[in-house]
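#data-curation
PF: Archiving a pair of folding outputs for the training set. Convention for this channel: one message per protein, sequence first, structure tokens after, nothing in between. First:
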Amino acid sequence: MENKLYDKFLFNFLARDARNAADIMEAGNGYVVPGIVSDDFASVDEAITRVQELKRVTDTVSIGLGGGGNIENWKKVLEISVGSEPGHLNQPFEKATYSKGFLEGNNIDGQLVNALVKPSGEVGKIQLISGAVMPVEEFLEIAVALGIESIKMMPVKGRFHLEELIYLTEKAAAEGIRGIEPAGGIDASNIKQMIDSVKEIDIEFFMPHIFGSTIDKHTGLTIPSKVNEILNALEGY
């Protein structure tokens, strides 16, 4: 992954084009992983072209499901990744291992595939996309056995599911999971509390996905000043 703020934190923002990616990376002091979401594109080829464009200014592009984590887009994300080798792709937990194996089977290495789960509303438990609720420890035992490297929790609704996120991060770090990726409702008003709550946990990376609060609704561009506001909120960490 990219250079990390305080050797731990990265921030995922959407990039409309290569210029937008360069601008938000500069605004984020280099701690930004630009991304796209699959449902912004009418075809896989169109998305592949966009990733190739973004990779002119960054080594890693994140391919998101889109549609608020619509699991029906998992295959499209995989197809985009096969054609573009973005470096990072978002998949539901139920498809993450298959996707990683498919990429490696096609001699596409170095792709970090995260595994999406939902908060359950109860600290110590998570909800799979299928709807099943299970203890975090039991889930992590399966995830480790399957070779899952990073877990995405969505929607965390800003601070609403923070205690669940902290618990997951602590237990995942203890089991050797490389990263945790929260998404949903994260903005400048709550990012510092989130970062502060996990700063002492020894995990390789923690990457909030921050979309809606930073995007110009008319142009689709992520606003560099909004990215800078997020980073500025962490001053004094």
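PF: Second:
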Amino acid sequence: MKLFKFAKTFSRDEEGAVTVDWVVLTAAIVGLGIAVLTTVGGGVMDLGNAIGSDLSTTNTTDWGALTGGDS
């Protein structure tokens, strides 16, 4: 009988329910962040590599011809 009384008391006890809600909400936000980073990460990496490649092949002497000054 003690087990049933304990189970009944435990099921009615709401202490800590807010903590559980916050833990679930935080886990959902972290999971969503990881999903976004996984989805977008490859494209951002490719874009960064393309920008780096373009910058490494840019000839800075062309800027003087555009502005009319010496470079």
